[in-house]
Write a structure and sequence with these properties.
The protein contains seven helices and 14 strands. By secondary structure, it is an alpha+beta fold.
Length: 296
């Protein structure tokens, strides 16, 4: 009964730790993606306002306002103006291309200049990362003064690519955590046969938990019931620190008896019975508890 409980408790701790790390990783990745997207969107809107500002200057207007940039769809924005203006298509193309080149996610986009009154398209063009795929016309014709709006629609792969980079970047970390988890659980799984038979190999010592006996170099050494229970906890977690409070709880407190120095006494007795094998040692971990150290 103690065997199963300790084993499940140990595995539960590793599983809980692994799930906690996984949860923290996912939250951090999601938070990073969200923060990154918010920053990219805010930066893009500043660049769009800068485009509106330069278009007004090219129209001879240095006093009227560029109205707040409006997001009209997932990847589409609208630049609006307070007053009428005129523009030259070639200057508009060069301005948008120069400023949006500062945004790494604005590789491909379509620009439409609309008449505010009826939303008809007064002028439009498409810009691509590959210049040979650009689409534009009528570059030399100055457009009449009117109340215009400029819609800029971006290709929707930019933000998705950023998310994919974060997710792909987190995979090595998740793989590393999984490796640590499996490696930590492996020693316990290796004890499956021992759990069924009650026999454990600790260095050159054979520990028979069912019959409360140690066999060292062919010599049998009897154990008391309490010594057996203490050593069994160590055998299930070799080379791991066992907290003093855990030993007291599982050995005595669960049976309704609380002890003080009794634990130290049983540890001392076990040390003497294991001293025939120099590769086995019950070490004191100051401020924490004990560890059964087994050197290969």
């Amino acid at each position: 009964m103690l065997n199963s409980r300790n084993l499940l408790s140990g595995k539960g701790k590793y599983l809980f730790g692994f799930m906690l790390l996984l949860f923290i990783t996912v939250i951090c990745a999601a938070s990073s993606v969200t923060d990154g997207n918010d920053f990219d969107i805010a930066r893009k809107e500043v660049l769009l306002r800068r485009i509106g500002h330069e278009i007004l200057l090219q129209s001879g207007d240095s006093t009227s306002r560029v109205l707040p940039v409006k997001k009209i769809a997932e990847n589409e924005y609208q630049i609006r103006f307070e007053n009428d203006l005129t523009f030259q298509p070639e200057s508009l193309v060069n301005t948008t291309r120069r400023l949006l080149a500062q945004d790494p996610l604005a590789g491909d986009y379509i620009v439409n200049v609309l008449n505010s009154g009826n939303s008809s398209v007064a002028y439009g063009y498409a810009i691509s990362k590959n210049k040979k795929d650009d689409i534009m016309a009528c570059l030399g014709r100055v457009q009449p003064r009117a109340h215009y709006m400029i819609n800029i629609k971006f290709k929707s792969t930019g933000i998705n690519t950023t998310k994919n980079k974060y997710l792909l970047g987190s995979l090595p970390f998740l793989a590393f955590v999984g490796f640590i988890f499996l490696r930590s659980v492996k020693p316990r799984r290796a004890l499956t046969h021992g759990e069924n038979t009650g026999m454990y190999t600790l260095g050159s010592v054979l520990f028979d938990a069912k019959n409360r006996k140690l066999t060292i170099n062919g010599k049998a050494i009897d154990l008391t019931g309490t010594e057996t229970r203490v050593l069994l906890i160590f055998a299930l977690s070799p080379n791991e620190t066992i907290e003093r409070s855990r030993l007291q709880k599982e050995i005595w407190e669960d049976e309704g008896v609380i002890v003080g120095r009794s634990l130290d006494m049983f540890i001392s007795k076990l040390r003497k019975k294991l001293e025939f094998d120099p590769n086995i040692k019950i070490a004191v971990i100051r401020g924490k508890g004990y560890k059964l150290e087994i050197r290969a």
